Task: structure prediction
Amino acid sequence: MDSFSLKGKVALVTGASHGIGFSIAEAYVRAGALLYFNASSEERVREAKKSYEEAGIAAEGFACDVRDEEAVRDMVARIEEKHGAVDILVNNAGIIKRVAMTEMSAEDFRAVVDTDLTAPFLVAKAVLPGMIRKGHGKIINICSMMSELGRETVSAYAAAKGGLKMLTRNICSEYGSYNIQCNGIGPGYIATSQTAPLRERQADGSRHPFDRFICSKTPANRWGTVEDLQGPAVFLASDASDFVNGQILYVDGGILAYIGKQPE
Ligand code: NAP
Ligand code: GCO
Result:
């Protein structure tokens, strides 16, 4: 089972100050990787470092806005100075804005696309030359149910995450011959700060209707946890997945397979 180990691999997980990114970072360190992460500001990095220390995880953090190409290049250059190349990149940083499309400003639409689609392109672009020199690399893009499905209020997010699925396939197509694998993980509905507004208790103490809706749409009948993503993320970063390329691994408790409950 050595092929599942990440011993000595250099990993960069974007937006790993908390939530899904933090959980994947934790799994990578436990699997043996040297971990780098970034968050959007110095303050967020400081807070994250505390969380890493409390969890007993060694990790180095950068303040780097993933939308800023120069800052991204600088971050990657600093990692490469020490290690030659990034072995594993997880494009995890992301945002959502839930607004009906007819009410959404172009500025808000662009902000989501910039963070959720253009930024993964920028970070992948920065690490690819090092991976090519090294003759191996893994890029994992955090996609979404919205890479496949739509719903009210998430037009920008769905457009970006659908685009991220195709960026994944294109990186596989363009750089697969350099022994670089680019795959996606499509988390289902995971309990993090991003989805907290969809799970808030109602004034009368009852569950949020969206919370009940998601459980009824999920054969596993629950929200996912950040830990649910750890095994799939380790697999896609490890040598065990060296012939898996251009795939999106949906980790959704079965949502995409299910037509939904029949009416009573
Ligand atoms: P989260 O708790 O809101 O965390 C988002 C992370 O992205 C934070 O670390 C944040 O850093 C970082 N980030 C956002 N914009 C950034 C920027 N411009 N530069 C640098 N870092 C930035 O969200 P999450 O639920 O863990 O989601 C992580 C990823 O999974 C996202 O791409 C999301 O779309 C995707 N996803 C989530 C779910 C879900 O159900 N939760 C499902 C499918 C996919 P700061 O701390 O500095 O803000
Ligand atoms: C929403 C949610 C989602 C999830 C996730 C599903 O408002 O529908 O926030 O989009 O976070 O990406 O996979």
